[in-house]
Each structure stands twice: as structure tokens, then as C-alpha cells.
Amino acid sequence: MDAAAAAAGATATATADLTSSPLLSHSSPLGFGFYFLPFATIICFLIPVLYIFPPIPATTSDALRATHTKIGLSPPKSNLKDQFSPAHAAAANAAAAAAASDVPAAKLHALYIYPIKSCRGIELSKSKLLPTGLEFDRLYTFAQLKSAFPVSAADSEETKDRHSWEFITQRQFPLLATVKVDVYVPDATKRTAFVEQHSDGGSGGDAWIVFRFPWQDRGFRGVMQLLAAKIRDGWRAEPEREVLLPVGFPTPEEIEARGYEVEDVRIWKEWVPALNMGKEIPNELSLYLGVSNKLTIFRSDPDKLREVHRCAPRKEETGYQPIVGFQDAYPLHLMNLTSLRDFDSKVPKDENLQNLDVRRFRSNLIVSGAPAYDEESWKHVTFTQGSSKTTHPAGFQVSCRTVRCKLPNVDPATGVRHAVEPDRSLRKLREVDEGAPHMGCLGMQLCPLFDGTDRVEHMQGWLEVGMAVDVEQRGEHLYIKQ
Fold first, then answer.
1. How many domains does the chain divide into?
2. Separation between Cα atoms, residue 446 and residue 121, nearest integer Å
3. pTM over 0.90
């Protein structure tokens, strides 16, 4: 009994000691590692999951990428990375030396299209050539509703109330330069159940244009938009609003269903019937661009294109009368990098203008290797294979010089307009055409030529970077005003 009692007492004493031990006390704090390790484990698991499957809604572009391919060179790829290189001057000197031997030295250096007039362009390595210029070029234009001004007291009420649509460009609204544009074409190699359905019921079987502009809503919604943009596109990304437009001209059924209307829009001095698709334009775009009047977007009507005359060739010479969509005047615009670099060297610089990017001049064809201003003597040129893979040549009538407005004052990267340059220097140094007094000229206007058919719908060719420029005829140019 004494032994049992002693054992029981010892057990009770040990239990009391353990209970009073700091290791088992309920008031003992847990170490930092107890909380940190589970937290770190969860974070390390979530980061790659969120990176691969971000918890953000799919954009229109995301949906199109499932069934379509975006055309053009994706940054940082570009054939214009060397546009400021002194090597262009050396190449031009070599071209001048080679001119005596009739060896084509100039080449097609870069290609650009502008699906929406005055918005950011798309750089291509190859493009289909049509009577209207490069495929997808200037299909759309923004326009604002303007009233008759000024009016007098003697004018009728009808005149005072008259409104009309006029196209807009970076000259009035420089932020158009920051409106990005992409073209998506169907890709038969992509097979997926995730097919973008347009709001009118159309499927992903057609080509589409997506334009986007910076926009962030106020409040919590805007914060979430900013967060989603940075998760999707990187830390420097900003929220954008996307708008989907068809490349093809809508059918009569689609026009009626969407409430589109055929109206006249003014392009410089011409009134052009086109399809008003303003119902697709969000109000935020007007606020972003600073357009106080009513804003809309027009699609050029392929059956009501503008004929080009003035300096363009006649139908008797080419088999068709040159036509354009929403281009200013002629189907194609060409710039010579050597000419631009020579002119750029004479333009005064300041903190807001360090050099002249060729993209300020919104040309379709950018050539290199020709002497400065040599293009101003070209009358007929043929683009041949050169270092490209395109074997069929493409011929052009060089119609006239390009008379410049103030649009090149806008920086194409930022949408910031310089107060005076290069417009002032163009008028001072490049008043070279008797048909355009007091105006600066830089670049040339072209009309494509097609052999083997006189039916416009069958006329097409190809242009590719690297093609050689063969000058077949030279002569003088005299600009004819509109």
C-alpha cells in the first residue's frame, strides 16, 4: 500500500510539473515561423497559378486570338529600328554611283497600313496590293458633326440648323495618334471552342479590326481595371477600352439590324457617301480625344469609292481610273529615308523634338538606298524581287509630290503636338513645287498599275520588304490642287 501510494504521488507530482511547464502553457506565444511558413507556401503556389490563369475577364482581343491571327510585326520587331542610322547616307552615295550602271540600289525598307485614318499604323513585312492601295488601308475614318459657321441673320433657319459630318485627323485631335489599331484575320490552323461571337451574331469566320484607347473609370471599378491591366500586360500597362469593327462591309441585313445609316462625310473638299457606324463608338472616346461635337465612325463603301484625277493617270492609260477609300488624295504615299534624314538635319531641335520619325508622315511605302530627293524625279517605277521572296513585279505611276499639312507636328508615339516644327521648316526649305506655292513638300503620291486585266475586282499584286526599286521613267512634277 505504501509503495502504491508513493507511486501515485510521484505520478501526480510529474503531471503537475508538466502542466506548469512553459512549453504546454496556453499563454505561450507561437513562433514567427508557425505563421510565415504556411503563408509563404500559399503565396508560392498562387503566384504561378495567377500568372498562367489570371483572374481577369477576357478581352475582345483575347477571344479573337483563339481563332484569328493578328497581322503585322509585333514590337520590338521593326524594319525601322535603323531609320536614324548614318548608314542611309552612305547607301545613298553608293546608289548615286550605281545609277550610271542602271543597277537598282533603292529598296523597299518598310510597309505601313492605317486601317483607321489618322490612328496608329500597323507595320507589315508583306502586303497585298489593290487598286485602292494596300489591303486594309484607310477603311475607316472618325468624323464629327459640325454646324454651318459663320451664319448671318439673313440666312434661312434651314441654313442655320444645317449640320454635316467632317472627318477628323491628328491636326485637330493629336491624341488620335495614341489610338492603337489591330487587324485579325481568320487562321485555319486554330481549332477551339472559344469562338468570339460579335453582338450581331457574326462568328469568327471574318477579319476584324480592334481599336483601343487608354481609359480608366473612376472609383473602385477603375482601380480594378488598372489592376487587371497590370496583371495581364505588365507593370507599365494602363487600362484600355477596346472596340470591335468588321473589316468586311456589312450586309444589308446587318446594316438594318445594327441601325447603321448611309450618310455623306466630308474628306477635305469632297463629299463622300459612306456607312455611319457611330453606334459602335463609346462615349468615352470623345472624352479621351477631347471632341466636343458628336463623334462617329464611317466605313468606306466599296461600291462608292472616290475616283482620283488631277495628277493621276487616265483610264485610257491604265485600264481603270485610280480609286481611293479614305486616303487624302491618292492610293499610296512613299517616303525616302535618305530625303527625310537630309531634311531632318536642317530642322531646329529642342527638348520636345530630337529627331523626325518617318512615322510622323504616315507613308505606306518607305524606301532606302536612293539619293536624297531622287524620288522627286521618278515618273514610273517597278518594284522587283530584290532580296524578297516575291517574284512578280509591281508597277506604279508616281503621280506628284506630297504637299504637307501640320499633321507631322504630332509625335506618333505620344500624341504630343509640337508648336511649330516640322511645319515651319517644311514651308521654308521645301517649297519646291510651283503648283503648291508657300507649301512644303516631302514624299511622293503613287497609283498602282496592273497588267493583264481591265476589271478592277481582278486587279491585285504583292509588295514585300526587300523588293528593289527600278526607276523606269523620270521627269518633272507639277502639283495640281484639289
1. 1
2. 19
3. no
